[in-house]
Every structure is written in structure tokens, then in C-alpha cells.
Write a structure and sequence with these properties.
Blueprint lengths: L2 E3 L12 H10 L5 H22 L4 E3 L7 H8 L16 H9 L20 E3 L6 E3 L2 E3 L10 H11 L4 E6 L1 H7 L1 E3 L7 H18 L3 E5 L9 H14 L5 E5 L9 H5 L5 E5 L7 H7 L5 E7 L9 H12 L4 E5 L18 H4 L5 H17 L5 H16 L6 H8 L12 H12 L16 H11 L5 H22 L16 H4 L3 E4 L6 E4 L2 E3 L3 E7 L6 H8 L8 E4 L1 H6 L2 E2 L5 H22 L3 E5 L14 H16 L7 E6 L8 H7 L3 E4 L10 H6 L4 E4 L12 H14 L18 H30 L1
Helix pairs in contact: 1-2, 7-8, 11-13, 17-18, 22-23, 23-24, 26-27
Length: 772
């Protein structure tokens, strides 16, 4: 029996975010398509070489993407939405990036592509912080091979001497993730299977012996129709060329195990990190010829594995059958290499493993299983020492935090009065017009802002000079907001590096990397904090900047905070205690900041919970427990203020139908949400629930460089007023503006204010008409 090592995908962005820089250079017109393609080819070659050198036996191809792997699949099968006026030949780079980012004359990417077209809708990839482009399918949808990327990259690897296993999103998961217009996506499966069969046949002709076919939807609750779709799909594809490694991740198969055990595939990958207990039932159900790939290393978190424990768990099985060891999912979700973190606390660093280290762990484990434990003596000893050191470190536990949580009473989660009374008190204090306008919080982080921050970090400018620079930027932003007529202002957040990192850096219990970047979407990368210990707030974090900004204006200035659930979900979270416990600790720290802002005079405080929906478990049976502690945590943070202090929250791309009651239970006075890409469709949930509080549906998409016209936003507000009463509507962009340029932001916000004024004028005309 032999044990091999595989990876399901490797970080695309490069050790120093080379892909980000190449993309943004191309989009700005500073470099050519050939430059971008050369940079991408270099990253792919480096990834294959690195993984092979680390000990991986089975390397993936087609795991690389210039923007998103789901978008790549749409391009591969020719699923281009009609609004792009596609001729039906190949999906070229201009069209590909227009689907991802929208297009506007002159083309935002710096290359010719006609029209003024919105981007495809974007949402979270299962319960991760990675965003994918949602496939859009229509009645009569046709499919054809419209991109050769999967074939080209297989041949590219082969020319470099690497026999790879191409990775392909499976047809059923693709359709389950899609949105259909006048069609149920699964009804398109027969047509789609014809193209998938052709794809597999072409890969076989090129020499591919295995294909990794990802079906992550197999860890969800499935309907009968979805189960039948899986049966039909793999009955049709099993004999079309390469052997199929059916790949599942982000959870266990659960009640779908019987279904999977009957599918005619040659291999099965199981996530044994999220669902360690599924191995024994799977062994009992699966045919002996099915090659097992075991996801034993965490591909979503950065904690070092306990190799001796894994060895003893797998030793008997490895003696009985061939196995593949792998991360539980693609390593897309973790940074590339811990070796770059030379300034990280050495004690904490020894507890960690990034993508490079995770492949090394797999190789050491496989070597021990193949040759005996002593063959990996050094790796096992280091693993054992790190596990003990982490468990016993005094950095982890703070008795004062434990005591404070234990003393928390039920009153800490409730506002003093119901919303109706609070609304009256807030309106008396704020005196806002109908359709009040605001932004979500951040303004463009220009190259100059980033340069000043970098100079400060390097010690090239001192604290006083940096603070003065930030005051100038803040003052200018406040003045400009006043000039264009925004009703509720923000300070712009020029002092902040990231909405989670900024707070984590000021909270006890967090550590930070210098180069621990992961991809969020496209060229957008983030450095998640490492939540390693008990959390507390040593001192106020935002009050001074809020006070300075409020001193510049007579208009209300929002205090801007990130909520406890979002800080938790966008961090690498400790795995030695329940996530709920960590979240409550963060909530108490944010509660302290809320109360300090109110004491300083803040009338409006926004506590962003962009990631609340993202953290929802994939199985419905687990939803309520999560929502209970997530909502409780938000209320702990938000409920310690007077009635006339208005609490806002913001949520990013999410489907709200399933959690609308939980959103209502959060009891925020105002919630802003991203709705522009969906044409206000996401407000359906608020309408059917009769959401009683106020809502700010985003009226333009900030993830695209398109500049929307006033009429476009007026039309969206008109649609919004059909879902929720006009008296409840705020007017704001979809999200924060830090990633955009000022020459995009200025005209868009001016048009947004004009749209709000237009809606107010309409409301006055309507009132006058009704009065007659």
C-alpha cells in the first residue's frame, strides 16, 4: 500500500502579490495583455515547482485564475449573460474582465470593449471570505467550449515536466451556484453535460489520466431533484476519459454519503478537518476500488497540524489500502509562506503553518506512513513541541476576560426601548430629511495615502508628521462631503489599513503578519489577523479620530466600527475553544468602544457586520445555534447606548431570505446592504418579513469601476420603494469606497445625492397630490 500527497489548489496571488500588481497594471493601461499573461505563466510555473519540491506527488492545474475560478468555468462553457452582446466565439480577456468588473466607455480595463455594462453579481464562496462571480443563466441557454484555459494550462505544465491533475468545478455544483432567469438552472443539466463530456474527452486526448472534479455542494442539504442531478451527471461522465476524483470540502457528506457511494467515480476526497467523523462511515460504504483522498490538513486556517496524532489515526488504514493525503480544501484560503514572517513573535510563529508549510506537513506525514514514524522524526518532534507549547502558553488565557464574560447579564443584550420609540428620539436629535444620504465609511486609499503609511511604518516619517498628514486628508474629505450635500458624514478612515486589521492591532489576543496575504476577490487581497488568545481592549481605538472629524462639521459624523462577528469571521481564529466564546470576548471589547464614542458625543455609530451571513453553517440543522450567538454578540456590542443614539450596521454580499429573522433580531436602527448588482432583488426578504427598522439598499456597485448615472440610481431607489416603505429608505453606495479612485467616487456620489433629492421631490409631489 502506498500513500501519496496531493494539493487541491495553491494560492494564486504569488508570494508578494505579484498577480495583484500585474492585474492592476493591466487594468490601468500601464502594461499589455502579453505582460499580464507572462506574469501569470511565471506564477503558475513557480507554484508547480514549489509544490513538487515540497513533496507533493499530485499537482493541480487549472487552479490558477486571473480573477475567479467560477468565472473561469462560465467562460469555459460559454455561459455569458446576454447583456454583454457576445458573438458566441471565444471569451476574450476584455469580455472576461467586463463580466468581472463591468465595462464603460472608455473601457475600464484600458482596452476596447463597447457599451456600458454592469458586472456579474458577486457573492461569498460557501462560508469563506472568498468572493465568486455568480453564473447567470437564461431560458434557452446554450453551452459550448468558449475558453481553452483548462487545456492550455495542462499542456503548459506538461511542457515544464509536470503531469498534473486538472481541477474543474463540477456541473451540478456549478448549476446549484447559478441564478436562472425564467429557468431553473438544474433543468439545463443535460445540455451542460454534453459540454463537460467534451471537456473530459479533450483532456484525456491531451494525456490527463485523472481530473479533480469539485462538487462542494455535496456537503449541503440536498433536494431530491439535486440528488437525481448528481446521479445523472456522473452516470454520464464516468466513462468520458480521465478517472474522476470527486472532491468535496467545507464539511461532511452526512446524509449524502449513500448517494456518493453509488456514484461511478474512481476516487473521492473527504474533508476530515471540518468533518473528522465521516471517515469510518465512508469506509463502510465505499467500494474497495475507490481511491480515497483524505483532507487531513486544514486548508482554511493557519494552525500547525499535530502530525503524531494524525499518524496514529491513519496508520492502520494506510496499511490496508492506497491513500492520498491532501489539505481539506484548496490552499487558496491561506497565505503562501510563513518564512516571510521574520517580525512575528517567535512563540506564536511556531504554532503556525501557511501553504508551503502545509505541503511540508503532508509530505512528512506520508513519508512516516510509507516508511515508518522514524522517517519523519524531526518533523514529528517539532510538531509535538509546538502543540505542547501552544497549549501551555501564558499568552493564550486572560482570567480577567473570563470573569467579565461570566458576569454578563441578560440586560447587556437589550436596548432600553423598542425601535419605534428610539426612532422618534433619533429623528428629534438628528432632524434628517427623507431619503437621507451617507456612505458606508471609507474613502479612497490613494497611492499617496498608502505611500505615507508605508513611510511611517519604515520610520521615514515620525508619528507627528504622519498624524498631520492624516488630519489634512480627513479635513479635506469632510469638507468635500459637506460641499456635495451628504446628510451623514464619515471621516474617510485614512488612518486604517483594513477594517478588521485596524481593530485587531489594538486588541489584546491578536497577532499580525507582514506578508500573510490571501485573495478576497480579483486583485483584492487581505491579511487576516491571527486570533490566538483571549480578547480585550486596552484603550479607546477610534474616539480621537472621530472627535477630530466631528470638529470639522456641524453635520452628524458617524463613528465607524467593525462588529464582533465580522472580526471573528475575517480572522484566522483559534481552534482551542468554541468560536462563540471568542466572539463574545470581541463583542465586549467593541461595546466598550461604542460607549466611549457615545460619551464623546457621537449620535450615529455604525457597527459593520459584513460577514454575519458568511459564517452561517452549511447545514440548516446547525444554523440556529450559530445565529443565536452571532446575534447575541452584535447586541452585546450595540445595546449599551441611549435611545437617541442611532446604531447602524452594514452587510456585504449575502442572501438574506434565510436569515431575515436573525437580522431583525439584531435590532440595529439602520442596516445598509449591497443590492445594486442584484437590482434590489435582495430586498425581497425585507419586504416579505415586513422589516420594521430602516434600510440603506446600495444604489451603486463599488466593486466595479463603472460610474453610474443619476437616472440609474433613481431607478434603483424606485425599485427599492416597491419593496420597503420609502420612509425607511436610506441612500448609500453598496460598500466602502477605499478600493476606488477619487475620479470614480466623486461623480458617483454627486449623482447619488442628486438621485436622493429627486426622490424627495417626487415624494413631495405625491404628498401634494394626495392632499388634494
Amino acid at each position: 500500500m502506498t500513500v501519496a500527497v496531493a494539493t487541491l489548489g495553491f494560492p494564486r496571488i504569488g508570494l508578494r502579490r505579484e498577480l495583484k500588481h500585474a492585474l492592476e497594471s493591466y487594468w490601468s493601461g500601464k502594461s499589455t495583455l502579453a505582460d499580464l499573461q507572462s506574469a501569470a505563466a511565471g506564477l503558475r510555473a513557480l507554484n508547480w515547482n514549489r509544490q513538487k519540491a515540497l513533496g507533493a506527488d499530485i499537482l493541480p492545474s487549472n487552479d490558477f485564475s486571473l480573477y475567479d475560478h467560477v468565472l473561469d468555468t462560465s467562460a469555459l462553457i460559454g455561459a455569458v449573460p446576454p447583456r454583454y452582446d457576445w458573438a458566441g466565439e471565444s471569451v476574450d480577456p476584455d469580455l472576461y474582465f467586463a463580466m468581472a468588473r463591468g465595462a464603460q466607455q472608455p473601457a475600464a480595463c484600458g482596452h476596447a470593449h463597447g457599451g456600458d455594462t454592469t458586472a456579474m453579481e458577486m457573492t461569498k464562496w460557501f462560508d469563506t471570505n472568498y468572493h465568486f462571480l455568480v453564473p447567470e443563466l437564461v431560458a434557452g441557454q446554450s453551452f459550448r467550449i468558449a475558453s481553452t484555459k483548462i487545456f492550455d494550462e495542462y499542456e503548459e505544465a506538461k511542457a515544464l515536466g509536470y503531469q498534473t491533475r486538472p481541477a474543474l468545478l463540477g456541473p451540478v455544483s456549478y448549476l446549484m451556484l447559478a441564478k436562472g432567469k425564467a429557468v431553473e438552472p438544474l433543468a439545463l443539466l443535460p445540455r451542460l453535460l454534453e459540454v463537460y463530456a467534451e471537456i473530459l474527452s479533450r483532456l484525456a486526448a491531451l494525456g490527463a489520466d485523472w481530473v479533480q472534479i469539485d462538487e462542494p455542494c455535496l456537503v449541503l442539504d440536498l433536494t431530491d431533484a439535486q440528488r437525481i442531478a448528481f446521479e445523472r451527471a456522473y452516470s454520464a461522465l464516468a466513462t468520458r476519459g480521465p478517472k474522476l476524483m470527486l472532491t468535496t470540502y467545507f464539511g461532511g457528506l452526512g446524509d449524502n454519503l449513500d448517494l456518493v457511494a453509488e456514484l461511478p467515480v474512481h476516487g473521492l476526497h473527504l474533508d476530515l478537518v471540518r468533518a473528522p467523523d465521516q471517515l469510518e462511515p465512508a469506509l463502510a460504504k465505499l467500494q474497495p476500488h475507490v481511491l480515497l483522498s483524505l483532507g487531513v490538513i486544514d486548508g482554511r486556517n493557519i494552525w500547525r497540524a499535530n502530525l503524531p496524532d494524525l499518524y496514529w489515526r491513519l496508520k492502520a488504514l494506510a496499511a490496508q489500502r492506497d491513500l492520498i493525503l491532501a489539505p481539506c480544501c484548496s490552499l487558496l484560503h491561506v497565505p503562501v509562506d510563513l518564512a516571510l514572517e521574520t517580525s512575528l513573535d517567535p512563540e506564536i510563529a511556531q504554532w503556525l503553518a501557511f501553504a508551503v508549510q502545509k505541503v511540508e506537513e503532508l509530505a512528512a506525514l506520508a513519508k512516516a506512513l510509507n516508511e515508518g514514524e522514524d522517517a519523519s522524526f524531526a518533523a514529528f518532534s517539532a510538531s509535538r513541541i509546538a502543540a505542547v507549547a501552544r497549549q501551555t502558553s501564558p499568552k493564550i488565557h486572560d482570567p480577567a476576560v473570563t470573569q467579565r464574560l461570566a458576569a454578563l447579564d441578560a440586560g447587556a443584550t437589550n436596548r432600553a426601548s423598542p425601535f419605534a420609540a428610539r426612532r422618534e428620539a433619533q429623528q428629534a436629535r438628528l432632524n434628517l430629511p427623507a431619503y437621507p444620504t451617507t456612505t458606508i465609511g471609507s474613502f479612497p486609499q490613494t497611492p499617496e495615502v498608502r505611500k505615507a503609511r508605508a513611510a511611517h511604518l519604515k520610520g521615514e516619517i515620525d508619528d507627528a508628521a504622519y498624524a498631520q498628514y492624516l488630519r489634512v486628508e480627513t479635513r479635506a474629505a469632510v469638507k468635500w462631503q459637506e460641499e456635495i450635500g451628504l446628510d451623514v458624514l464619515v471621516h474617510g478612515e485614512f488612518e486604517r489599513n483594513d477594517m478588521v486589521q485596524y481593530f485587531g492591532e489594538q486588541l489584546a489576543g491578536f497577532a499580525f503578519t507582514r506578508a500573510g496575504w490571501v485573495q478576497s476577490y480579483g486583485s483584492r487581497c487581505v491579511r487576516p489577523p491571527i486570533l490566538y488568545g483571549d480578547v480585550s481592549r486596552p484603550e479607546a481605538m477610534t474616539v480621537d479620530w472621530w472627535r477630530y472629524a466631528q470638529d470639522q462639521t456641524d453635520k452628524p459624523m458617524k463613528g465607524m466600527l467593525t462588529g464582533p462577528v465580522t472580526i471573528l469571521n475575517w480572522s484566522f481564529v483559534r481552534d482551542d475553544q468554541p468560536r462563540a466564546e471568542s466572539c463574545r470576548q470581541i463583542a465586549l471589547a467593541i461595546r466598550d468602544e461604542v460607549q466611549d464614542l457615545e460619551a464623546a458625543g457621537a449620535a450615529i455609530i455604525q457597527i459593520d457586520e459584513a460577514a454575519l451571513r458568511e459564517g452561517l453553517p452549511l447545514r440548516r440543522s446547525e444554523w440556529q445555534a450559530y445565529l443565536d450567538w452571532a446575534v447575541e454578540s452584535f447586541r452585546i456590542a450595540a445595546s449599551g447606548v441611549r435611545d437617541d443614539t442611532q446604531i447602524h450596521t452594514h452587510m456585504c454580499y449575502s442572501e438574506f431570505n434565510d436569515i431575515i429573522r436573525a437580522i431583525g433580531a439584531m435590532d440595529a436602527d439602520v442596516i445598509s446592504i449591497e443590492t445594486a448588482r442584484s437590482q434590489m432583488e435582495l430586498l425581497d426578504a425585507f419586504a416579505s418579513y415586513a422589516y420594521p427598522n430602516e434600510v440603506g439598499p446600495g444604489v451603486y456597485d463599488i466593486h466595479s469601476p463603472r460610474i453610474p448615472a443619476e437616472r440609474e440610481m433613481t431607478d434603483l431607489l424606485t425599485l427599492a420603494a416597491k419593496h420597503v416603505p420609502a420612509a425607511q429608505i436610506w441612500v448609500n453606495p453598496d460598500c466602502g469606497l477605499k478600493t476606488r479612485k477619487w475620479d470614480e467616487v466623486r461623480p458617483a456620489l454627486i449623482a447619488m445625492v442628486a438621485a436622493a433629492k429627486s426622490m424627495r421631490a417626487r415624494a413631495l409631489v405625491k404628498e401634494a397630490y394626495l392632499a388634494k
